[in-house]
Design goal:
This protein is an alpha+beta fold and 266 residues long. Helix content is 47%, strand content 20%. The longest helix is centred in the middle third of the chain and has 44 residues.
Length: 266
């Protein structure tokens, strides 16, 4: 979650700057809202995020945009927020018709709704997915480095990356109800493509069994490293949003078994 939180905070800076400028203009501390500087900063941030997105596409073949399911969720959330603001603005405009702008300024509310809508669209379609891609690529690179430093004569290697809650504040009640998302990667160490299936036995800090999970059958190219997917893996999300499986408690140790076959076999 670290990449997501940092990028989200950076993305909000231009909007906070703009909001602060609007407050100063409303209080008479400045003649008008300063649109130029926050807009330039937002453009720079979007350009940098876009460059990161292109790098992940070119270097790791990660799609430029989220999949259809995630896109619909982003549009739905954005539309719902803007719709609520619009309804409230219309109702207040009718019930307080003729009120001074210091009490209710419909144009300002419409402008706020538009800016908020654009912000959420950029967040869901570009910023948030790119942050998730950065976290996913970090896992890939860490796994590759760990495998390169280890010597193994196994045909297939399974590597445990981390066990975490996808929650910003872990001490809140809502976060305590969430399970741990666990990330395992499998690598085909052979020099030819194979169909691979692994069984993972997850253990807690006391080496007590938490769960035993069988993976889906994965077709791995020679030397390919890939996230292990199971029946618990969400097929509707993009690859950078997926985890292998969920547990109620954090994983500290693991054991695994594997089997493989030629891809031509049935």
């Amino acid at each position: 979650m670290g990449f997501v939180v940092v990028m989200a905070l950076i993305f909000t800076i231009p909007f906070i700057w703009l909001g602060w400028s609007a407050i100063d203009a409303g209080n008479g501390k400045r003649e008008k809202i300063d649109w130029k500087k926050p807009s330039i900063l937002l453009f720079i941030i979007i350009a940098l995020v876009g460059a990161m997105n292109y790098y992940f596409y070119h270097s790791y073949q990660l799609p430029l945009l989220p999949n259809f399911f995630e896109g619909i969720i982003g549009l739905t959330v954005t539309g719902a927020i803007v719709f609520i603001i619009a309804i409230v603005n219309i109702i207040v405009s009718i019930t307080h018709k003729g009120a001074p702008k210091s009490v209710h300024n419909p144009k300002a509310v419409w402008a706020f709704a538009g800016i908020l809508g654009v912000a959420f669209l950029l967040l869901f379609s570009l910023v948030y997915p790119t942050a998730q891609k950065a976290a996913y690529v970090h896992k890939i690179e860490t796994a590759m480095q760990a495998l390169a430093e280890s010597e193994t004569d196994k045909e297939v290697t399974v590597l445990f990356m981390n066990s975490e809650k996808n929650c910003v504040r872990r001490r809140t009640e809502s976060c305590s109800d969430e399970g741990y998302q666990n990330y395992f990667f499998a690598k085909n160490n052979l020099e030819e493509e194979k169909d691979v299936q692994v069984r993972i036995r997850a253990l807690n800090a006391d080496k007590e069994e938490l769960k035993v999970v069988d993976s889906n059958i994965m077709t791995l190219d020679a030397g390919e490293l890939r996230l292990v997917e199971t029946e618990e893996t969400n097929d509707k999300t993009s690859i950078w949003s997926k985890s292998t499986f969920e547990t109620d408690y954090q994983i500290y140790y693991y054991e695994y078994m594997y089997r493989f076959r030629d891809t031509s076999e049935e």
